[in-house]
Write a structure and sequence with these properties.
- This protein is mainly alpha-helical.
- It folds into three domains: about 5-55, no CATH class; about 65-90; about 95-150, no CATH class.
- It has helices at about 10-15, 20-25, 40-55, 65-90, 95-125, 130-150, and strands at about 5, 35-40.
- The protein has a two-stranded antiparallel sheet with strand order 1-2.
- The longest helix is centred in the last third of the chain and has 31 residues, at about 95-125.
- It is rod-shaped and about 115 Å long.
Length: about 160
């Protein structure tokens, strides 16, 4: 048989809570058989059930926890400050800016490459040597790539 010698006052003293806190946690125990005395088993079971209900509702749904929500909010604010700092340092850029820069670069590259044939066709007709044709094509491709590599919108590491 369990020892039913624990009163709410004694439990408050042992657990370091005030009596009202102990009563709230023990409210799940129906005290008709043993009066106002509890066994350790009842105390542990009631405490576990109280904690379970404080985390989830009676139907199992999540219950609002202000401490948890405040911690989430504080973490989100800290993350936002960190991102803003990285933007100011130039370590982070907006995805839309990257997309626009690269789209513009690709379009210029495409136009330049497509223009090679128009520019070289009249010159290549006059050439008889395959070496000379290759040299003209290589020179034009290198000029095209050199011009594109000087684009001020593309930041390069100088390290």
């Amino acid at each position: 048989m369990a020892d039913f010698g624990l009163t709410a006052t004694k439990l408050a003293e042992v657990l370091g809570y005030n009596r009202e806190t102990v009563r709230k946690r023990l409210a799940l125990i129906n005290k008709t058989e043993h009066g106002a005395k509890y066994s350790w088993r009842e105390v542990v079971d009631a405490y576990v059930e109280f904690e379970r209900r404080s985390i989830t509702g009676l139907d199992g749904s999540k219950v609002y926890d202000s401490d948890h929500e405040k911690a989430r909010k504080d973490a989100a604010i800290a993350d936002r400050y960190e991102l803003d700092l990285k933007v100011r340092r130039g370590e982070l850029v907006e995805a839309e800016d990257v997309k626009q820069t690269w789209s513009s670069f690709i379009l210029r590259c495409k136009a330049r490459l497509l223009g090679i044939s128009t520019k070289l066709a009249p010159l290549l007709v006059a050439e008889e040597s395959p070496k000379a044709v290759k040299a003209l094509i290589d020179e034009e491709i290198n000029d095209c790539l050199g011009e594109l590599s000087k684009d001020e919108n593309i930041k390069r590491d100088t390290d």
